[in-house]
Amino acid sequence: MAAAEAAGADTLVTCGGLQSNHCRATALVAARRGLRCHLVLRGERPSAASGNLFLALFAGATVSWIDADRYRRIDEVFDALSASLQGAGHRPWIIPEGASDPLGTLGYIRAQQELVEGWGDGPPFTHIAHACGSGGTAAGLALGAARFGVEAEILSIAVCDDATAFRARIGALMAATSARYPELAPSAPLPTIIDRYVGAGYGLTCPAQRSAMLDLSRCEGVVLDPSYSGKAWFGLRREIEAGRLTSAHRVLFVHTGGVFGLLADGVSFSAHLGL
Predict the structure, then answer these.
(1) Which of 45, 133, 141, 262 has a Cα-to-Cα distance from 185 of 20 to 30 A?
(2) DSSP per residue over 169-194, as a string?
(3) How many domains are there within the chain?
């Protein structure tokens, strides 16, 4: 927001999936700062809004719907939309998917610093696990680990795509961030990408994942969303069940938000809730 306002922008433009946490957050912060917001969402327009989409529209966001093929050429879509907004007298500011650029990655480098400061005097964590959707969290945590002397292995649990795609995406993002902030983000090894739990695809759950999410809520009062944190939590539990993580390890799970997405998936959870 600081960068957008410093540039004199009056409209935030970003993109994501139907239940993108990032898009909903962008719409809400734009409203708070008195800016317009235009979202480019992948998929078909639903008959009724729910979850993150409902909140984005509630905050006044304008939405353009595009199919998966056009979404793969999102830069072209952004260029055309920017030209249209400028022609209407607006000053757009483009934020990439998930805010996964060097500036957004810097946020998770600093988040890693906060994690270190919050650990106290206990034994160090051996692993840090999180949901991986656009790569910014993974890149920031990996660079932050190198910056602040964290030896824990970063486990980036994919919620879409595969390990090959994420290694390329995260590697490029880490390099770009290091180039922009050499004093904050030294070179670092790539995180470990786990792509075994994507399932049927982005935003799609299975009964076992829903059960894992329900168990956590009923045991700890911690609510996750089905598209991101819930899928990562399911993957982490399966890694433990498979013996790849044991009681000898100390694992930190980073909850990256997204409760509202759960409210869009009530039908899938009905059987688990006894309805």
Answers:
(1) 133
(2) HHHHHHHHHHHH-TTT----PPPEEE
(3) 2
Q: Are 251 and 126 in contact (CB under 8 A)?
A: yes
Q: Tens digit of pLDDT for each residue in 78-97?
A: 999 999 999 999 999 999 99
Q: Which of 47, 77, 98 is the last residue of a domain?
A: 98
Q: Is residue 275 part of a domain?
A: no
Looking at this protein, which amino acid is placed at residue 82? S
Q: Left if phi > 0, otherwise alpha if psi is -120 to 50, otherwise beta: which for 130?
A: beta
- Cβ(189)–Cβ(170) under 8 Å? no
The pTM of the full predicted model, rounded to 2 decimals, is 0.93
Nearest-angstrom CA–CA distance, 151 and 127: 8
3-state class (DSSP) for residue 97? helix
In a domain, 66, yes or no: yes
End-to-end CA distance of the chain: 43
Q: Quick one: which of 12, 5, 172, 26 has its CA closest to 105? A: 172
Question: How many Å apart are CA 90 and CA 87, to the nearest integer?
Answer: 7
**Does residue 180 belong to any structural domain of this protein?**
yes
Q: Which residues are catalytic?
A: 20
Tell me the per-residue pLDDT of 220-266, one tens digit each, with 9 for 90 and over. 999 999 999 999 999 999 999 999 999 999 999 999 988 898 888 87
Check whether residue 172 and residue 229 sit in a common domain: yes
Rounded to whole angstroms, the Cα distance separating 258 from 236 reads 17
- Retrieve residue 5's tokens: 């306002």
Contact 10, 36 (CB under 8 A): yes
